Amino acid sequence: MPSPDVIESFITRWENSGAAERANYQMFLSELCDILEVPRPDPTSPDPAKNLYVFDRAITRVNPDGSSVTNYIDLYKAGHFVNETKQGSFERGGDDPSPSSLPSKSGHGRRGSTAFDRALERAYHQARDYITSLPVSHGRPPFLMICDVGHSIDLYAEFTGTGGHYERFPDPKNHRILLTDLRQEKTRALLRAIWTDPYSLDPSRKAAEVTRDIANRLAKLAKSLEADGHDPQVIAGFL
Asked: Are 78 and 169 found together in one domain?
């Protein structure tokens, strides 16, 4: 487990970054992997079939006219997630067009502005389109993540494997993980599970486990009551 000092150093290092997604995202996500205690992405192979956990995973999208275009997923792990990155800024800008307020680099806009919210929304739809172009043999990953480098990660999930509608996870009000939330082990555990065992987070699986546990407890209780000499029909009605 990374020490509090290591985590604090990571947060301090990245919270001061901004407005340079292409320059920063691979380093940020690699260091995030270290904080989560998961392997860093693999080097990209010339063989696309081997690129199951890589940065800039190439996919081919076919246009309605039959032409094709190659796009790149910022970070991809087959069977786990698609991660699209952006990077905003805390500097003024975005919705404020006055020259004196604009930073030298504003990235995708000022965090909290309408412009940046639109950028994140576009990133979601971009990632969603990439998922539909993944190889059929890979299936559809349960998680879609939108990372604002050095600031936050928005989580979306779809556990049926059909690539249907990805909903905010775990719910609409708590789907955004802030960089400072990484101080909490439960937050790091959540992200670690997305990297290592994403289907363990499926609410329907948890519900099934609870149902099985209750059924087992009731069966044990019924056997105990029968052993005490109670009528089985009375026990059934009671339970």
From this structure: yes
DSSP 165: P
Provide the β-strand partners of residue 145: 83, 155
Q: What is the pLDDT of residues 24-78, one digit of tens each?
A: 999 999 999 999 999 999 999 999 999 999 999 999 988 889 899 999 999 999 9
123 and 225 share a domain?
A: no
Return d(Cα 91, Cα 112) in angstroms, integer: 11
* Total domains in the fold of the chain: 2
Contact 41, 25 (CB under 8 A): no
Residue 61: beta bridge partners? 69
Contact assessment for residue 148 and residue 88, using Cβ atoms and an 8 Å cutoff: yes
Four-residue CA torsion sign, 87, 118, 33, 11: positive
